[in-house]
């Protein structure tokens, strides 16, 4: 399991080395992706209105 977390950390370190090259465009891209993901999740939850009872 430790190998997975080291792999994930190395992956993000590699990604973040390219972030200064993109500048603010990377932040705007992440905001737009998050915006669409949020509304896609709301649409999906509204479409599947199954209620889970916790009795």
Question: What order do the helices and strands come in, and which of them pair?
Answer:
Blueprint: H1 2-22, H2 24-47
Reading the helices and strands in chain order gives HH
Question: Major beta sheet, specifics?
Answer: none
Helical content stands at over 70%
Q: Whole-number radius of gyration?
A: 18 Å
**Count, helices:** 2
Task: Tell me how many strands there are.
Answer: 0
Uncertain stretches of 5 or more adjacent residues: none
> What would you call the shape?
flat
Q: What is the mean predicted local confidence, pLDDT?
A: 89
Cα distance, first to last residue?
35 Å
Percentage of residues in strands: under 5%
What does this structure look like?
With 55 residues, this protein is mostly helical. The chain is 82% helix and 0% strand. The mean pLDDT is 89.
In short:
This protein has 55 residues and is an all-alpha fold. The protein has helices spanning 2-22, 24-47. The longest helix is centred in the middle third of the chain and has 24 residues, at 24-47.
Key traits:
55 residues, mainly alpha, 2 helices, 82% helix, flat
């Amino acid at each position: 399991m430790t190998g997975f977390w080291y792999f994930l950390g190395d992956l993000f370190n590699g990604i973040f080395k390219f972030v200064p090259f993109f500048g603010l465009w990377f932040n705007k891209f992440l905001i737009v992706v998050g915006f669409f993901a949020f509304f896609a999740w709301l649409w999906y939850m509204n479409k599947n209105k199954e209620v889970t009872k916790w009795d």
